[in-house]
Amino acid sequence: MEGTHKVDLLERWMQKDLIGTLDEGEGIVQQLVNAFLLESFQKGESIKMLDEVRKGLVKFYEAEMNPVLLVKLDGRGLMEAPKREAWEKANEMHFMSNKISKLPDNPNCPLLYALFLQGNLHLRVISLSFFRFMPILQILNLSRTKIKSLPQSLFKLVQLRKFILRGCELFKELPVEIGELCHLEILDLEETEITKLPVTVGKLANLTSLKVSFNLPVNGNRKNDPANRIIPQNVISRLSQLEELSIDVNPEDERWNASIKDILKEVFCLNRLHFLKLHLPEVFLLNDLRNLSWMHFKFIVGNNLKRIITRLPHASAIKFEEQESCLKYVNGVGISTEIKEVLRHATVFFLDRHLTATSLSKFGVKTMENLKFCILQECNEIEAVVNANDEDDGDVILHSLEYLSVHYLRNLRSIWKGQSLPPRRSSILFLKVLKLYSCPQLTTIFTLDLVQNLNNLEELVVEDCPKINSLLLRPDKPIWKRWYLPKLKKVSLHYMPKLVSVFGGEWIYQSLEWLSFYDCPSLKILSPGEIRGPALKVISGEVEWWSALKWNESKGLVPRDLDGIFIPIDRDIDLRTQLVAINDQLQAQMQITEPTKQSGPGVEAGTRTKQKQLA
To answer: Within 10 Å of residue 371's Cβ, how many Cβ atoms?
Structure first.
């Protein structure tokens, strides 16, 4: 083992007056050995610097001797890129989110390795020679620009490793020269308008991530034409280093249906793959999937016809896209074993327009043990989200579920149906968010048995459920008074014409921070026990409703003055827009106010009204 004699090292230190005595040097060396920065061998007579430490120090030294010159001009509203002189010594240039419409013709950039131009919506054309003098460029981001084509000089960037074109809505064809970028590792073509990949993509042997969208359908006699294949044969299988593959298609594109079987065969030749996003038009294609236990995935299964207008709220759609290991099942009939098998590995389930299922639990409680996030939309036969009678064991149901969002279930009557829930059973124990939209037959949300299990619920949204008169269905017999929902922070109740009581007068823990009411004309009396507590920062609603509101003081609880945290809702402005603005205002207020000092209102009200009357 090579190294340095410790005595020789200490003598050099003394010659350079770094230490005064050998003993002092011995102590320093021992400290470095104890800290694993040096390695001692030959009975302590020799020492050596560990390889990883040496590499780190060399990298640090190089960075100090060759500091990075960063040109950071993002979000400045620039109409033009900087002059040529600014490019010559730059290592990294940030021009994103400006209004740049023109770039220099052929800037000299011998040191530039990263160029960020995303979000320049006025950038339509890049000159043919723009990339000519960028010999070491490794990162290029042109996403969300209006470019239609790529200049030839770009394909001379042989050092390019990361190339992002996401969201270039006018970009329609990827040139065959893309195969010349031999070191490319990441290629993102999502949300572009390309209709197929060139066969030369198969030459990108170092590619680890490929994301692509085919949004324009090509049908008719051309669907089986090999020259018009959406992805040429053997392209995917040649990308042996792929770790991430995302293919988003227009479900009406017949070319995809004609080639999906061949593509699946190629996909599962990729031994390094750990993320896969695909649209599978038929359920039986799931039989070709393997090794899902160690892979993240996003599968859309079924005849997913594109909608001109989606009924799913934007926030829910974004939330779904952020998740991993997702299954979206569209226009299904029956409960297939293939779907159940994928559900065993899924943490997210989006059930959209299923034609026969009468409850979510029909898909099997044991198959959904890992499920954390669930969306149900337009499944018109569902009468209960959970029917405990569907399962023979029925012991623990959806114990991992944290987020449940329900939309346009025409026949939904209740959240839970069947046997009652003893307290502390782990069924739906970890549910944090419950959202219910447009369920015209829904009459029961919470029973006392169910609400006692929801100790982790933080947010509740109920909109356009016209038959609900109270969120909590109380039993006829008397019960012991207790507190419920200890972590509930946010409640939003909108478009509920028959709502007369929030929680039926039951006491809610003092964790509530947000209450939003809109178009609830029958809600004329509130109980202080339902909304009391020092954490409450916002109550929003119509001014007329708030002015007429009365308080039920029969429980011996007197409401504090809440006028200071009331924020009026304007009927002439979109409700969701106003709620987003109120939430942003609240978050900003919370950031600048220390929690220990928040004794006053969290958000200053825009209008003060008279003190509430006591009923």
So the answer is: 25
The structure's pTM equals 0.80
Torsion of CA 524, 530, 536, 542, to 10 degrees: -10
Two tokens, residue 470 = 């109270």
Torsion sign (Cα): 270, 271, 273, 278: positive
Q: Is 64 helix (H, G, I), strand (E, B) or coil?
A: helix
Instruction: Give me the half-sphere count of Cα atoms (radius 13 Å) on the Cβ side of residue 42.
Output: 11
20 confidence band (pLDDT: 50, 70, 90) = confident
Instruction: For 333-389, give the secondary structure using H, E and C.
Output: CCCCHHHHHHHCCCCEEEEECCCCCCEHHHHCCHHHCCCCEEEEECCCCCCEEEEHH
The whole-number average pLDDT for the span 131-144 is 97
Q: Rounded distance, CA 606 to CA 566, Å?
A: 8
DSSP 8-state secondary structure symbol assigned to residue 23: H
Structure tokens at 122: 């006025």
% of the chain at pLDDT higher than 90: 53
Spatial strand order of the sheet with 613-614 comes to 525-526, 550-551, 613-614
Quick one: angle between helices 6-15 and 22-34, nearest 10? Answer: 120
Cross-strand partners of 353: none
Q: How many other CB atoms are there within 10 angstroms of residue 327's CB atom?
A: 21
Which tens digit of pLDDT belongs to each residue from 318-353?
Answer: 878 888 899 999 999 999 999 999 999 999 999 999
Closest to 47 in 3D by CA, of 67, 26, 64, 62 = 26
The amino acid at residue 220 is G
Inter-residue contact 177 to 155 (CB < 8 Å): yes
Residue 391, CA atoms < 13 Å, CB-side half-sphere: 22
Range in 46-55, 171-180, 265-274 with the lowest mean pLDDT: 46-55
The DSSP output letter for 453 is T
Indicate the pLDDT class of residue 476, thresholds 50, 70 and 90.
Answer: low
Per DSSP, what are the bridge partners of residue 162?
139, 186
Task: Provide the pairing of β-strand 446-447 with 472-473.
Answer: parallel
d(CA 245, CA 306): 22
- Using CA atoms, how far residue 400 sits from 212, 363, 448, 506, in Å, is 32, 15, 21, 27
Rg of the chain (C-alpha set): 31
Contact 486, 510 (CB under 8 A): no
Q: Which of 176-185, 296-305, 425-434, 507-516 has the highest mean pLDDT?
A: 176-185
Average pLDDT over residues 529-538: 77
308 contacts: CB under 8 Å, gap ≥ 6: none
